[in-house]
Design goal:
Layout lengths: L1 H25 L14 H13 L3 E2 L2 E2 L10 E4 L4 E7 L11 E5 L2 E6 L7 E4 L5 E6 L11 H10 L5
Antiparallel strand pairs: 1-2, 3-4, 4-8, 5-6, 6-7, 7-8
Helix pairs in contact: 2-3
């Protein structure tokens, strides 16, 4: 009877071990997929410069760029923070009731997204930079601090 109990307890443990090993081995290592914008040549040049200045970490999260590889996109924390440069001007920017914030000299349009964190788009710049934050940042614009210097340095003001 004891050996039967041992077999029963070992078999589930072995099965769990095999499942965990298979899950680890079968992972494709696929990266987050983010659509790259289609900016003008001038905007793309600003975005390439910005890409070179982006930090390795944002809000304590390591950079984990999405695919396809592009100078127009970047991500941190497996998609918790996603940046796209050269996006189209959001329609919401024409709304006089739209919310905006200023972070270290860079103005941002704030767009709340249902079921997700906020999206910010730079304003008064020669290329629009969009930063989408995951749900954990629903009430936190803190990560924008890490983007202020690179944006100010590489994307000129349109004013």
């Amino acid at each position: 009877m004891t050996s039967r109990l041992v077999r029963l307890s070992v078999l589930p443990a072995a099965a769990v071990g095999l499942l965990l090993a298979a899950a680890g081995c079968s992972g494709t290592g696929a990266r987050l997929s983010v659509a790259a914008p289609s900016p003008s040549k001038e905007e793309a040049a600003f975005c390439r410069a910005l890409h070179e200045e982006l930090p390795r970490t944002v809000a304590g999260l390591d950079r984990s760029d999405p695919e396809p590889d592009s100078d127009l996109t970047a991500a941190w924390g497996d998609g918790a923070i996603v940046l796209r440069c050269g996006v189209a001007r959001p329609a919401r920017m024409s709304d006089p009731k739209a919310l905006g914030i200023e972070v270290n000299g860079v103005d941002w349009l704030l767009e709340e997204r249902a079921g997700d964190g906020p999206r910010f788009t730079s304003t008064y710049r020669k290329a629009y930079v969009e930063v989408s934050l995951g749900e954990r940042y629903a009430h936190d614009s803190g990560p924008l601090v890490d983007f202020a210097d690179p944006v100010r340095k590489t994307v000129p003001s349109s004013l």
